[in-house]
């Protein structure tokens, strides 16, 4: 089943969810770059893909938002306060997932580095643009916020599975 239903999320929604979960987890490896100036396996092997993966996440989040709007009426619903809190939490996740790559791009372009992803030049190197640097400097703060949102998201999935026992996690598997 490709589309969502009231009982279960469809394969496209699950593809977006789990592929982005993997890519965002990869992006969090950038935190290890702070250790020993990135002079270790993670810093030398996985972190160099940070900009390319971030660009891919931006494309996926735009597609995912479009898919979410299209499937809005088909989604499983929760009429309680938990449902309202879930919508707020998911909304904050979406906002952070859009802002992360956008502020990263602003930082790179603002500093005159340009933007290349997967060895393709997307934006050429240029002059420094201070207002882009200022907005781009929020990238690290948003990363920490996203980390906490993801931890809360995972925590609530386990609460739904083992305490509330409402089958939420099963609908995403």
TrEMBL record:
As for membrane topology, the entry says: Multi-pass membrane protein
The compartments listed are: Cell membrane
Asked if the record carries the keyword Cell cycle, the reply is no
Pfam families linked: Ni_hydr_CYTB
Provide the primary localization.
Answer: membrane
Q: Which GO molecular function annotation, any one, does this entry have?
A: metal ion binding
Which keywords describe this protein according to UniProt? Answer: Cell membrane, Electron transport, Heme, Iron, Membrane, Metal-binding, Transmembrane, Transmembrane helix, Transport
Query: What residues form the membrane-spanning segments?
Result: 12-29, 49-67, 88-109, 141-164
* GO CC annotation terms, alphabetical: plasma membrane
Give all residue intervals belonging to the Cytochrome b561 bacterial/Ni-hydrogenase domain.
8-173
Extract the SUPFAM superfamilies matched here.
Answer: Transmembrane di-heme cytochromes
Q: Would you identify the family this protein belongs to, as annotated?
A: Belongs to the cytochrome b561 family.
Protein known as: Cytochrome B561
Species name for this entry?
A: Idiomarina loihiensis (strain ATCC BAA-735 / DSM 15497 / L2-TR)
Organism lineage reads as: Bacteria, Pseudomonadati, Pseudomonadota, Gammaproteobacteria, Alteromonadales
